[in-house]
Design goal:
Blueprint (H helix, E strand, L loop, with lengths): L7 H21 L1 H8 L3 H6 L4 H22 L8 H27 L3 H25 L2
Length: 137
């Protein structure tokens, strides 16, 4: 299966980089994230399972694929770092930030949690966009 404008190598690298960014990001903000979530370290440790990591890896792959397809739809010669970063920012603003705002508002989640999680997804999309634009089609 081949889709115009998608470089599968860039998708794999972008997915791996997004996953690695998440690991570093949440490791460095672990205490703040748990506080905003309303959980303790013990609560998190009790939930140890590989399933969230498998879901995260699959989601990163799908996000990178869809982002590459969205960028590829700009047309021939348009898969550049600049256009990829702009597209990633638009995708985050129009789809990620808005859906998070709605979900977190109805869940009554703390604003700090929304900011931490939202910044994570912004970072993921920008990193993935950078890689997709850098490698190109």
């Amino acid at each position: 299966m081949h889709f115009a404008g998608i470089n599968y190598i860039s998708v794999l690298f972008a997915a791996a980089a997004g996953f690695a960014f998440g690991a570093i990001y949440y490791t460095s903000l672990g205490t703040q994230w748990m506080t905003a979530l309303g959980k303790t370290k013990e609560d998190i440790e009790r939930q140890k399972s590989p399933l969230p990591f498998l879901i995260a890896a699959g989601a990163q792959l799908l996000i990178a694929f869809v982002l590459a397809g969205t960028i590829g739809h700009l047309g021939d010669g348009m898969v550049t770092i600049r256009n990829s970063l702009i597209t990633a920012l638009f995708v985050w603003t129009g789809f990620v930030a808005t859906t998070m705002a709605v979900n977190y508002a109805f869940q009554g989640a703390r604003l700090r949690l929304a900011l931490i999680d939202g910044a994570h997804w912004l970072g993921v999309l920008l990193i993935q966009g950078l890689i997709i634009g850098w490698i190109g089609v």
